[in-house]
Amino acid sequence: MENIALIDSFSEFKDNKSIDRVTLMSILEEVFRATLKRKFGSDDNFDIIINPDKGDLEIWRNRVVVADGFSEDDNEEIELAEARLIEPDFEIGEDVSEEVKLIDLGRRAILALRQNLISKIYEHDSTNIFKHFKELEGELYSAEVHHIRHNAIILLDDDGNEIVLPKSEQIRSDFFRKGDSVRGVIKTVELRGNKPAIILSRTAPAFLNKLFEQEIPEVFDGLITVERVARIPGEKAKVAVDSYDDRIDPVGACVGVKGSRIHGIVRELGNENIDVINYTKNEQLFISRALSPAKVTSMEIEMYEEERNGKKGRVSVLLRPEEVSKAIGRGGVNIRLASELTGYEIDVKREGLEEEDVELTEFGDEIEAWVIKEFKNIGLDTARSVLEASVEELVKRTDLEEETILDVQRILKEEFEQ
């Protein structure tokens, strides 16, 4: 097989992969040099001439003419008698350039060369895909459902790139069929072997942030900035927004008339409830807004010297009794998101706590912590608040068994009887 014929056969890779002819020729030279080095021990004295326009290639080996019987390296030196078979008037010390044909490399070397070229082209293609998607980390991206597995959905974009949406990155209510278009943010891009692993996420806070940019013109134009986002995917989110233009109401602009602007985002996120609040650098005011719809009476902030579990301090918030359950939210969702949004651990205290009442945490030796947490999640953080609620109501509002609730109330009653 002539050199040019081999190159023509390799052109199929250029057609099948996103690789230009010049790059293909560069890879071809690299592969040929590796083959020459394996066969002759060195490729330093070889010239490889590639014409990317015509697609032809020539290989020339350069050797120095030495006296007969004095050659120490057949690759770099050629004896006079052999040189004169090429050109009769060669003399000792002159340079000889001799073209190397593929047939001279041997059939096995040619097969290995072809396989090496395939590998190099795929490696080049994977590297380009990796670099492309690495730059897109954190950006919004759409792809089509190609295959549905138990623990992940495999997507393909318009260029045929494979993108993975793991179960852990899906919203709980997500349901997709083959052919559906899926939006998310590129969460991570890694090279596993020579293949890029592209992970899409619909649960990351960045997804909500990017949806605001896409759906709300003022956010896209930079008139409104999304300062912070906290999410429990598919359930509830809090978004703090701000504007440098005093004429713009950032919350009103994001929500729209009767929620018209935010409705598309809510629908995309499986009816995730989104609270949009005004951001401020005033810590007390920001914490109060983050705890909405509850109205805060007062608060005390204790700053940590160093962050603890990602929190910069602890705040004790005083609320009227009827506001406690609002601040905590169903299952503790509201207070958890407020804590994540503000960066503070938040303790809720009931205003007007009677002297004879006792906080549930005081019963830690007799009542398990997870049981106390169940009561606190529904706004019941004192002994009397638990005793005043009916067993039926507590069974309905918590994940506790009736027997556990009766046992807790017995312990609390004994405290007051004493």
List key phrases describing it.
28% strand, disordered N terminus, 16 helices, transcription antitermination, GMP Synthetase, Chain A, domain 3, N Utilization Substance Protein A, Chain:P, domain 4, alpha+beta, transcription regulation, OB fold (Dihydrolipoamide Acetyltransferase, E2P), 4-stranded mixed sheet, 418 residues, elongated
Show the helix and strand layout.
Elements: H1 3-16, H2 21-40, E1 46-51, E2 56-66, E3 77-79, H3 80-86, E4 95-99, H4 102-105, H5 107-134, E5 140-148, E6 152-156, E7 162-166, E8 181-192, E9 195-201, H6 205-215, H7 217-220, E10 224-232, E11 236-243, H8 250-255, H9 263-268, E12 273-278, H10 283-290, E13 296-308, E14 311-319, H11 321-328, H12 333-342, E15 344-350, H13 369-377, H14 383-388, H15 391-397, H16 402-417
Parallel strand pairs: 2-3, 11-12, 14-15
Antiparallel strand pairs: 1-2, 2-4, 5-6, 5-8, 6-7, 8-9, 10-11, 13-14
Helix pairs in contact: 2-5, 10-12
Structure description:
The model is unreliable at about 1-5 (pLDDT under 50). The chain has helices spanning about 5-15, 20-40, 80-85, 100-105, 105-135, 205-215, 215-220, 250-255, 265-270, 285-290, 320-330, 335-340, 370-375, 385-390, 390-395, 400-415; strands at about 45-50, 55-65, 75-80, 95-100, 140-150, 150-155, 160-165, 180-190, 195-200, 225-230, 235-245, 275-280, 295-310, 310-320, 345-350. It contains 16 helices and 15 strands. A hairpin with a 2-residue loop joins strand 13 (about 295-310) and strand 14. It is α+β, with helices and mostly antiparallel strands and about 425 residues long. The protein has a five-stranded antiparallel β-sheet. Strands 1, 2, 3 and 4 form a four-stranded mixed β-sheet that branches. It has a three-stranded mixed β-sheet with strand order 10-11-12, with helices on both faces. The longest helix has 28 residues, at about 105-135. It is found in: Cytoplasm. It comes from Polaribacter irgensii 23-P. One of its GO terms (biological process) is transcription antitermination.
